[in-house]
Each structure stands twice: as C-alpha cells, then as structure tokens.
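Please decode residue identities from the backbone states below.
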C-alpha cells in the first residue's frame, strides 16, 4: 500500500546514503549499528514544531480542506468542566472522515516525544486534501479523531509529564500515561478521559518514542517497536481484543518493514526490573492500556458509567526522544515518515478490512526477544513464573486506589 506516499525511493536512497556514511566511519566511534540514521549528537529541537506551530498547522489544514476537517478544542466541545492543560493551554482535536468506525489517533502524551505530532499532522493533511482513492476509502469507512499533542505543557518544557499548577501536589510532574486508572491528578487526564468517554472510539492508536534502545544482546539500535496494550499472552487484556490487536500490529509491521526501516520489533522492556531481563507490558494505568481493560473500572466522576466503553488499543514506539540527546541531526524526517507510514497503514487496514485477513499468529513473526522474565505491571515486576504457579494474574484482585 502506498497511501500516496510517492517518495519511497527517496527513503530507500536516504537509508543507503546513511549506510554509506556510516560505513565510511562517520560514526565509527559509537560502534553502534543504527536502526535508521544516527542517534549521535544533540537533538535539534529547534527544528521541531512548537505547540503554536501545531495549532497554526491544524487551522491551516482545516481552512483549506473544503469542510473535510473540523478542528476544535475541548473547551469548544464543552463535554466536561476540565477542558485545558494544567497551565491553561487549549487541547486540540481534528476530526476527519464520515465513516461509522471511530478511530482515536493520539501523539505526544509524553512531552519529550515530539516527532509523532508532525507525523499525525501529515496524515491529517493527506486525508484532508489528497483526494486519492485510499484517503477516500478511509474517509468513507472511518471517522478519525487526530490529537497531535495530548500534553502541550510538557511539550513546551520538553519533559515527560505535565506539572500540576494547583492542589496539594502543586509542582509535581505527572506522567499522563500512568494517570488513568490511578490518581487522575492532572487536568489533561480528566479532559481527555471525558472526551474519550464521549466519543467512544472503536480503536485507539497512541504514538510514542521509546528513548534510545538497542536490540537485546546486540549493539543494533531499534528504529521502531510495535506495541500491543496489553500483553496478548496474559489475561489482563479482554479476550475479545487479543486477536484484533495482534492482527493490527502484524498488518502495520508488514507494511512499513518494506520501506527501508530497519530493526522494527515487538515492544518489550529490556533491563527491567534488573539488567539483562526482558519484560513485557501488562500495566493498566496507561491511557492506551486503560481503554482496553475498561475505564468504567475506574469510572472517573461518572463519565463512563453509562457507556462502559472499552476498545482495542495499540501503540508505536519510535526510537529516541527529544530531551536526552537520543535523536541525531538526521533522524527527524526519517522517524517522522516512519510514523506517518505506520498510521496510514493502520487506518487503511481498518478501512479496507485488509487487517482482518492477517492471521493473529503472525504477531509472533515480528522480532522479539527471549526468554521473557515477566511483566511490567502497575504493581511492580510480575515474574512469569508466578503465572505458572498461580494461574494467570487476575487484575481485579488488586486495589487500584
Ligand atoms: Zn511515551
């Protein structure tokens, strides 16, 4: 699938040029085999969109979309009393498409994971204006809600979490991707949760960066990881979602691996809880995790009491981030395009139904690493051996509050 991306040759060429540069010793000192361009050198945040740039781009796309795109703030949506960030910034959504299947595509829930925002704006631009057959198919079958930045305060500070501006914990940095089902401390968490309960997505895709990561036991850097929330081999995830999330991840993987992106794998945590041990995610406080296990389980302020809404979720984890020097000078365009391609594959797979032709077991063909020591949970490390001894972990047995 091309999704109108006509520059595949350029991406391949870029990869070849970079491979040549690397082979000539430009970065030999790092002894790192890159998954894409170098991660060496300072992160050029000056070239990355500010929140003001994002807002300006949203309205620019809307204004030239001939009605195809509707940009609105959560204040304008007026769903709930909390509609802004902790520091008072407006929170933006762009709606595109008129189809019956609702899809939530969000980026930048972590403020220092910023390239994903530009990627989803490129997707919005393409869906709004290309007029191509694939964009039309997506628009006819899906209604896509694109959220380019869930965390503008932290984006402006280039840090992970938002900073509480009031209350007993004023000044505390809160990770929005641990706040759902846990404390719900941040204004953004409440505002986005209310919107999620209101719009009731059928699918959710959340875009992240994973910091610098190498393939376990090697010095190869990873360019992107496919994340399923939660681990499909555990019983925390609803049984009905296990196959769809595997199919979606495998479909996206098959599509983007052909574009010259190297070292795409399944998202696992290496070195947690102790160096040399590989774990998988099984935590529920994350936004994309919480939506899968049912937010009514933590029905904040009665917002989800009636709908009792849940949906399958997955996430992308692109390498590097914008705060610790783990993106190089040449990585930005490459990694942004990788996310663009992944989001387009995800949406087209859903719109066309092609994703359901993929065998769920194909998920296990995406590179992963073993042995699995256990699982990263809201309650700390959970050894896989404990499952074998006690049956699969039952989340309801734990006290969330
Ligand atoms: Zn993240």
């Amino acid at each position: 699938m091309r999704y109108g991306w006509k520059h595949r040759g350029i991406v391949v060429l870029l990869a070849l040029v970079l491979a040549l540069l690397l082979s000539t010793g430009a970065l030999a000192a790092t002894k790192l085999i890159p998954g894409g361009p170098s991660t060496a050198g300072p992160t050029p945040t000056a070239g990355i969109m500010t929140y003001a740039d994002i807002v300006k781009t949203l309205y620019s796309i809307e204004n030239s979309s001939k009605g195809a795109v509707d940009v609105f703030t959560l204040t304008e949506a007026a769903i709930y009393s909390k509609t802004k960030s902790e520091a008072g910034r407006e929170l933006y959504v762009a709606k595109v498409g008129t189809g019956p299947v609702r899809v939530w595509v969000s980026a930048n829930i972590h403020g220092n994971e910023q390239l994903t925002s530009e990627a989803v704006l490129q997707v919005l631009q393409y869906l709004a204006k290309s007029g191509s057959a694939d964009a039309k198919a997506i628009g006819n079958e899906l209604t896509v809600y694109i959220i380019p930045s869930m965390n503008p305060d932290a984006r402006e500070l280039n840090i992970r979490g938002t900073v509480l501006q009031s209350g007993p914990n004023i000044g505390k940095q809160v990770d929005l991707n641990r706040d759902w089902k846990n404390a719900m401390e941040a204004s953004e968490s409440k505002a986005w949760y209310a919107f999620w309960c209101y719009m009731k997505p059928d699918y959710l895709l959340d875009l992240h960066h994973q910091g610098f990561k190498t393939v376990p036991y090697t010095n190869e850097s990873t360019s992107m990881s496919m994340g399923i929330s939660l681990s499909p081999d555990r019983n925390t995830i609803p049984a009905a979602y296990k196959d769809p999330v595997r199919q979606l991840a495998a479909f996206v993987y098959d599509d983007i691996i052909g574009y010259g992106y190297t070292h795409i794998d399944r998202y696992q945590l290496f070195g947690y809880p102790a160096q040399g041990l590989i774990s998988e995610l099984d935590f529920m406080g994350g936004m994309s995790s919480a939506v899968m296990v049912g937010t009514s389980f933590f029905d904040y302020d009665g917002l989800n009491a009636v709908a009792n809404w849940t949906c399958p979720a997955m996430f992308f984890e692109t390498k590097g981030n914008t705060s610790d020097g783990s993106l190089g000078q040449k990585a930005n365009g490459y990694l942004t395009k990788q996310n663009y391609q992944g989001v387009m594959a995800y949406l087209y797979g859903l719109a066309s139904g092609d994703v359901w032709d993929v065998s769920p077991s194909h998920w296990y063909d995406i590179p992963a690493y073993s042995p699995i020591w256990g699982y990263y949970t809201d309650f700390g490390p959970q050894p896989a051996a404990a499952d074998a001894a006690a049956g699969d972990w039952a989340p309801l047995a734990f006290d969330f509050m």
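Observation: The domain at 8-397 is CATH 3.40.630.10 (Aminopeptidase).
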